Amino acid sequence: MIINEKEVLNFNDKKIVSYNVSFENGFEFEILNLGGVITKIVTPDKDNNFENIVVGYDDIKSYIENPSYFGAIIGRTSGRIYNGKFILEGNEFDLAKNYNPHNGHGGNKGFNKKIWDVEVIKGDNKVDFKLTTKSFDMEESFPGNLDICVNFEVKKDFEINQTYTVKTDKTTLVNLTNHTYFNLSGDLKRPVTTHNMKLDSEYILEIDETCGVTGEKINVKDTPFDFRNLHNIGDRIDSDNYQIKLGNGYDHPFLLNNTREIYLEDDISKRCMTINTSQEVVVVYSMNFTDDCVLYNKKTNQKRFGICFETQAPPIGKNMSFIENSILKKDETYIQNTSYKFFIK
Ligand code: BGC
């Protein structure tokens, strides 16, 4: 395998470095110290064409703002915190309402905007990219000093295992995820509406007009959210279902059953992937909005050109519903993992 480390940008005296590993079999992975953004996962299609299967920007500068959070580590909390407020141990915390009227993805300067320390650990047919950083007490108005580690174990046999570890010195909220948008057509050839998905989930969490979680569950039976059997993603994405209309497509937390497995395939390239996770929820976001930045290979940024699987605890909804699932106390360790496995049908 070949490991490459390259300074790709210097802004405000901060060095943005990309770390790349490519294996003899063509599997390639690339990550930035900025936001832990995954810029490349290269896998073969049925004809052995090696292409990038994640969505990313053409210009590295676009990752500084990264309006769509492409590929990034999300924290302290993923998704929306209803009305940007919460109470912990009797103290009220008022957060940035960057997802009006809610707080979203960690606030104005979430973990996606941090420059992480990266350690590269070479193993047998694998490399670990160990990303660490700190978040200070009252940063983005959250209590507690955090030590955070996100380890990406990249294995030659087309596997990526992410392990998230966090410690705090005060009771706080922690709910991390990864915001990679997948597109198995390769190099963004087709929208993900052509892909099929299977998801072992019987319930989604209801969202309201503000896209915040209400605290209620909805059974997926007879709805566009039923992916218990393999189903095409585009088929029901514009259907006349109220929840679909509110999200402008899929933008909902799915409660995962015991298998906690998600499967995605592209029938044309025959690329497939499975996601396994320790997390209880996956927020499926079907790229229902775009930003103004150009995608790599100068592709126009278009709706539904990627799909995000945000494995996480449920977002904190109305009346602080589900807050318990995101609480981390002093002397406890937050440990979660999510793995991706890529293969051909
Ligand atoms: C959210 C979407 C949001 C997108 C980009 C997703 O994780 O669920 O509502 O539009 O991130 O910010």
Structural notes for this entry:
- The chain has 345 residues and is mainly β.
- The protein has a single domain (2-344), classed as Distorted Sandwich (Beta-galactosidase, Chain A, domain 5), CATH 2.70.98.
- Helices cover 3% and strands 44% of the residues.
- The protein is built from two helices and 28 strands.
- The protein has helices at 62-65, 242-247; strands at 2-11, 14-22, 28-32, 38-44, 50-52, 72-74, 80-81, 85-88, 91-94, 103-104, 117-122, 126-135, 146-155, 159-168, 172-173, 177-179, 181-182, 196-199, 203-207, 213-219, 231-232, 251-255, 261-265, 271-277, 281-285, 307-312, 327-328, 333-344.
- The strands form seven sheets. The protein has a nine-stranded antiparallel sheet, with no helix packed on it.
- Strand 23 (261-265) and strand 24 (271-277) form a beta hairpin.
- The longest helix has 6 residues, at 242-247.
- The chain starts with a strand and ends with a strand.
- The structure holds beta-D-glucopyranose.
- Beta-D-glucopyranose is lined by residues 68-69, 79, 211, 251, 283, 285, 289, 308, 310.
